[in-house]
Each structure stands twice: as structure tokens, then as C-alpha cells.
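Aim 2 progress update. The chain analyzed this quarter is reproduced below.
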Amino acid sequence: MDYIEKLKNYTTKQTVNLIMKGLINTSDGNLIRLTYAAEKIAPQHKTKIQKVRKLFQDKAPAYFLAQKA
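Predicted C-alpha cells:
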């Protein structure tokens, strides 16, 4: 793995950590909006993120677990 790949991986991990810390006090609407940002950050996981967003929009039990996490 070259230097640029290591840098990309490091910055991605740091960005995800900051986002996760910011989710603690976020509103419902912002949580759903963040799923759109997540699609742009990780396009390879787009279908999974869309499923999570649908669960949040439907206020499924997973939504309440995510709020408590």
C-alpha cells in the first residue's frame, strides 16, 4: 500500500469517526440527510445505506437502536 492509499484510508476513518460522534445529538431529519452524505462517501455501499435510510424513515426498531448508540 503506497503513501496516498494510506492517507486516504486514514482520512476516511477519521471522517467516519467524526460523523459518528456528531450523530449522538442529531435530529431525525439530519440523521436521514446524513445517509445521503454517506452514499457519496462510500458509493460501494449505496444499496445498504438506502436500506438503512428506509428503516430510519419508517421508524423501524433499527432506528431506535441507532439513536441510542
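Residues 3-68 form one domain. The chain has one domain: 3-68. These observations will guide the mutagenesis experiments scheduled for the next reporting period.
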